[in-house]
Structures are given as C-alpha cells and as structure tokens.
Amino acid sequence: MHKPTAFRQTSRRMALKARFRARPRKPMVSVHRGLWPAFPENSLSAILAARSWDVVEIDVQLDRHGTPYLMHDDTLTRMTGDAHATGVIGPDHRAKLRLKAGAGGAAEPFTDEPVPTLEQAFNVLEGSSAAFDLDVKHAEQIDAVGAAVADMGHQNMATLKMDVASAEDIAALVALEKRYDIMVMAKLRLQSRDDLALVVALREADVAAVEIWFDDLNLLRRATSFAGDLIRFGTYTLDDVHCCGLSDSIAVKDPGAVWGRLLGAGIGLIMTDRPEALSRYLMTR
User: Is the four-CA dihedral 20, 262, 121, 90 of positive or negative sign?
Assistant: First the structure.
C-alpha cells in the first residue's frame, strides 16, 4: 500500500507541471469525459479517441471496496440502467454492467463498453502525450484517489483538482500535492477583486493550473495578469456549464467570439465537448 508520508519519484509531478508551463504557451484542449458524443462518456473507447489532445477530463468515484472507477452521477441509472448508487457496488457487480451510448439515458441503446476502473483508463492513455484531469465527484474521496494514482505510479499522467476559497484551502491543496507527488489543479470561483489575492497566493504556492469560473471577462484578465507565466488558467465552454454565455454551441458558429475571447483574456486551457472544432480554430490563429 502507498505510504502517504513518502512519494515514489519526486520528478513526476514536476514533469507534468513543466508541460503546463511550457513556452511558448500554446493553448491546450481538454476533452470533456472523453470523446463522448461518439462513444459512451467516461468509457475506454472515449478516452482512446481523445488521447491525441492535451487533456482528457474524466469523472472518478470509489466503489464499496475503495477502488476508483469512472462514473459521473451518484447513481448508475443514466449510464447503465442500473439503479444502484455508485458507492455501494463492488467489482463483480461493476464487471457485469455495460454503458449506454453517448450521454446515456432511457432512450439510448446499450453498448459493449464496460464501466472502467481508473487503472484501466490509465492503461488506455499510456504512451500518449495526454494527461488526465481527474474530477473526483466527492471531496472526501480525493485523498484516496491521490493515493491510488501514486500506487500506480502515474503521477506524471494526471492532475487532481480541489475547490479553493481561502488560504486554508490552498494549504490543503499543496499538502495533497506533496503527499502523493501529484500535480494539483485549483478550482476557483472569481467573484470579486478580493479573489485576486487568492490568485497571488496560488502563484506563490507553486500551483501550476487553475480551473476558473468567472462572471466578468475584465476581472478574468486581471487574474491572469496577476498569475504571470506560472499558472495556466482553464475554463469550460460546455453547453451545460460555461461562463458569460460562452458556450460550445455558439463557438462552433463563431469561434472567435467564444474561444478567441477566452484566449485573449489569458485562458490557456479550454474544456469542450467539441474538440475537433476547437482544434481547427486554433490552427487558424
């Protein structure tokens, strides 16, 4: 078992941080839940199809034995038709389940895709230049997922993210990074000028990536200028989750009005359900 007080190889998280801080800074593309419109979300096929991009965002939870596996909702219903809660099943039960197509739901057919463990997901991503953005759905499980990644020795292939709203939260985030030698990503809600102090604190804490929610592009520009070259700011343009009306649906029609404005404000990582369209736009810049 992994010992929290010592990590295996101190260079692993630093190697991934160096990629996020590389110069010249090219925008990075994060594929939301893998390439899920073509394959079931959070499936091995969706990850395989997304591994040519920079980041693959996946949702992680623990089963009743503490094994990390990929699932977004608190129940298995939408993606598997099984009504159990995610935390009550074990490996035998999970192995029998099959994912529904796309984003699931009652109308979608079943596929042959299994519900993957985090270890299986790493096996699919290994050998590519992509990294996982691990979105642990329950905050109390973040430590266990960090330990699991360290036990697998994959700290150079993943980031863990945590909400931060205070100096104490930042200290906890940094402690998590050091405990498991895994790169951390802060999740920050930028609501007022007072939050700029948190940006400075994150920079001083050597946090290399921040996923940010904002309501004001001008305030976002100030935040990114405060961070300088040390923090890569990321956000999302998902139709269900986006800031300031800057969504994928609008972006595919007018990419400059959405993705261009974000890049102009200092965003360096965009999570999207339309990675092909975003990549085509980036090639024109």
Answer: positive
Side-chain half-sphere of 40: how many Cα atoms within 13 Å? 25
Q: Give pLDDT tens digits for 196-245.
A: 999 999 999 999 999 999 999 999 999 999 988 899 999 999 999 999 99
Asked whether the beta carbons of 46 and 119 are under 8 A apart, the reply is no
Strands 28-32 and 68-70: unpaired
Q: Are 208 and 183 in contact (CB under 8 A)?
A: yes
pTM of the complete model:
0.94
- Tokens representing 81 are 């038709």
- The answer to whether 159 and 134 are in contact (CB under 8 A) is yes
Burial of 152 (0-12, 13-18, 19+ CB in 10 A): middle
Rounded distance between C-alpha atoms, residue 81 and residue 84, angstroms:
9
pLDDT tens, residue by residue, 122-132: 999 999 999 99
Residue whose pair of structure tokens reads 């990074």 in the numeric block: 177
Segment 91-105 shows an average pLDDT of 97
